[in-house]
Amino acid sequence: PQRTNRNRDVGGSLQRHTGANCDSAPPTLRLGGGSFILPRALKGRFRKVSGMLSSLMTPERRAVKRIAELSRDKSSYFGSLVQDYISFVQENRGCHTSGMDFLQTLRQFMTQMKAYLRQSSELDPPIESLIPEDQIDQVLEKAMHKCVLKPLKSVIEVALHDFQVSSGAWQQLRENLALAKTKRPQELGVDGAVPPDPVAIEKIRHKFLNMRKMYSPEKKVSLLLRVCKLIYTIMQDNSGRMYGADDFLPMLTYVVAQCDMPQLDTEIQYMMELLDPSLLQGEGGYYLTSAYGAMSLIKNFQEEQAARVLSSETRNTLHQWHRRRTAQRSVPSVDDFQNYLRVALQEVDTGCTAKTLVVHPYTTTEEVCSLCAYKFKIPDPENYALFLVTEDTSQQLAPDTHPQRIKAELHSRPRTQIFHFVYRKVPNLNLCIPAIMQNGNCLQVE
């Protein structure tokens, strides 16, 4: 009885969410107008081979395969939910107000189905018998991609494109891409870095085309990450110097313009709305927002104005997106991704200038100070130090501390406080007495 009630609750939630009764079955596919029947002996051999292959699979692949099979079995409650939802989406694409609304509906359904499978007794063997507890969610996520996004891939592509065309955004984007493609790197805000050559641009364009063939947002982001790292490598190899995040965005904008693929806009939207929130905190999440920023610069590109800085509207959109998609964080920010640290240079005569730096978890404060001195072009770095500044305190960080670990510790507190990393002159350099110890990191009190 408990199982029946739970199933009814999930089904009711789905029906309320879609606004329709999803009882119709998907159309039956007939091949050649007839049926092909395998001899009984061959069927037995196929079953044996299939059983052998299944036994060689990793536990994760076995679990994903079993969930995918269950999703196609309409006699199961889970299968009926998935198949009815797929049929509903195929038949009712026009009931959504925008591409974002459509993608959010898909994301909500996948989240509901993951919650159901965690409680359901339909999976045999139970998923917890195959997968460690801390890996179950990511396995369920992969299964949802296969069960829901794979069969709906073409439907999603057409729907997103139709929304762009009907709003006029598609034609405007094509015109802006054509205009931006004619511009030199410097006209798009690239400062000193040598851009990828035509051969590298074609290689990147090919990777973007491969991205379009994928249905998994996680795999799409993984490929985007490889593209962005390739661009970084080319920038550094061509000049022999390191570049920060503020140098990367204009170069990415230039590369996207040269690739001339308006379809990238919906690819980015697909990843931003369907990627599992737990994956938004790493490098992939950072580069995803960079890609969104690059596309936004092109969308708003004007002949008389170089696209150098994200508009306040774009920044607000990104902040709202982070807040919505990462509910576990109190105030998510573009600057919070792992391996990136926002540092402000504070000068008495010129005020504050901030830059986003590539800072890995085990980079020391001493190394961050060296990077700051280079990025901010400080002639006397021996007189500067890195400070952690909150609303009511300012603490100089000791040379052997790790700023990223300090940031992570501050974010893990129940009540998140506003803080900043500030690089500035120190009036007295003899401030090396540890005052606070947290997770092996010494915070120096000024």
TrEMBL record:
Keywords from the named record: Cytoplasm, GTPase activation, SH2 domain
Recorded GO CC terms: cytosol; endocytic vesicle
Domain of life assignment: Eukaryota
Protein name stated in the entry: Ras and Rab interactor 2
GO MF term set: GTPase activator activity; guanyl-nucleotide exchange factor activity; small GTPase binding
Annotated family: Belongs to the RIN (Ras interaction/interference) family.
Locations listed in the record: Cytoplasm
Biological process annotations from GO: signal transduction; vesicle-mediated transport
VPS9 domain residues: 167-307
Positions of the UniProt region annotated as Disordered: 1-25
Domain Ras-associating positions: 337-428
Organism from which the protein derives: Lates calcarifer
InterPro entries per record: RA_dom, Ubiquitin-like_domsf, VPS9, Vps9-like, VPS9_dom_sf
